[in-house]
Design brief:
- This protein is mainly α.
- It has 2 domains: about 60 residues; about 45 residues, no CATH class.
- About 65% of the residues lie in helices and about 10% in strands.
- It contains 3 helices and 2 strands.
- The protein has a two-stranded antiparallel ribbon.
- Strand 1 and strand 2 form a beta hairpin.
Length: about 110
């Protein structure tokens, strides 16, 4: 910061400093709003996930129960990942595993 040579220079510098302070205050308010939005979204997500977590605690073997249910239906069921690899195969009372060995791996 240079020293003011006159009252006009001093006033100009003070005006620039005040403008910078106002800009910083506006930016701080904007950032505080962003932080409040993130906190609100995090709280909302926690509230939405709470019932799921409670459900998972009640049924710790949920995945195995699902597989048993699928294996008991008389049709073939498979799920695939986005890359096309198979993530789950079941159904048909498990009889298809004996007939189609290529599909039997899980």
């Amino acid at each position: 910061m240079k020293f003011a040579n006159s009252d006009g220079d001093r006033l100009r510098q003070q005006s620039e400093i005040e403008a910078q302070r106002e800009h910083a205050a506006e930016e701080l308010k904007r950032l505080q709003g962003c932080v409040n939005d993130l906190i609100g979204k995090a709280d909302e997500r926690k509230r939405a996930e709470a019932p799921l977590q409670q459900s998972e605690m009640r049924f710790p073997d949920g995945e195995r129960d699902f597989e048993l249910t699928i294996d008991s239906i008389p049709v073939f069921v498979a799920t695939y990942r986005p890359d096309g690899t198979r993530s789950f195969v079941g159904g048909g009372d498990g009889l298809w595993r004996q007939d189609v060995p290529a599909l039997s791996s899980r």
